[in-house]
Amino acid sequence: MNAARVITPSWMDALPAVKGRVQKHAALGAFTWFRVGGPADVLFKPADEDDLAQFLTALPLDVPVTVIGVGSNLLVRDGGVRGVVIRLGGEFNHLSFAEETLETSAAALDSTVAQSALEQSRAGLEFLSGIPGSIGGALRMNAGAYGRETKDVVISVKALDRAGGAHALSAADMGFGYRQCAIPEEWIFLSAVLAAPKGDAEDIADRMAQIREKREASQPIRTRTGGSTFANPEGAKAWELIDQAGCRGLQRGGAMVSDKHCNFLINTGTATAADLEDLGEEVRERVLNTTGYSLHWEIRRIGDRP
Hints:
By secondary structure, the protein is an alpha+beta fold. It has 3 domains: 10-90, Uridine Diphospho-n-acetylenolpyruvylglucosamine Reductase, domain 2; 93-202, Uridine Diphospho-n-acetylenolpyruvylglucosamine Reductase, domain 3 (2-Layer Sandwich); 222-302, UDP-N-acetylenolpyruvoylglucosamine reductase, C-terminal domain (Uridine Diphospho-n-acetylenolpyruvylglucosamine Reductase, domain 1), CATH 3.90.78.10. It contains 6 helices and 17 strands. Strand 14 (251-252) and strand 15 form a beta hairpin. The protein is globular, with a radius of gyration of 20 Å. The model has no long low-confidence stretch (mean pLDDT 95).
């Protein structure tokens, strides 16, 4: 039996020349913590900022562009992602300390930034050690944990727009809100300057140890999960509402609501993206019917259903 022929859009035959890596019909599941999802039409890993800017400038504006990080809070649907998916790599993973600040590239892991700050006795970034993602993702969703949010430490941000134009953004320009920012989805964050005042190394280490202990005790961190599934509604906690609606341990296909923390969905090993998304929607419906609260997805969902 012959395999189905893959139809290649005409724009894919005329992609801009790059120094980085371009891969057509690229599987994306391995880049996500859920380990599920369909392919990207094109996956581009730029060699550096100039490579990325030149690619965006030459790419037709009607071709969709989607940016992904380390995939810790991401669900790629089984039908895959149309257009170009961009993933920043090693050339976007630098840290540099100044007197009271830290400049970090967007691909740097939140945990790496927190650890580097500890090594330099810089305070205020401990909360990043409890966020499983990269700085680019933290900027995009104003990630927060343990009493602080990204907006509390951002001084400035550097980004490229869809056409490859460079922008220097202040914290006010970012328009931070609860688990969101106001910058268009197709813009790509390159780096950020964060407040990093000098502090006591022992105090910083103690705070990070407390965060690690709390996280390990309360979250299913050694499973195929995607972090917190739903944002907390005003005046309530998502996990409490989910528990109240009787959803702890609820399953659909290979997807399950965590027994340990019921605002986490788990791929037990055989889940599809549809299993996970449909289970999440069932949880939302049950919570609405039981409590009257409407939960909103915190996990970013991209791509098409088959």
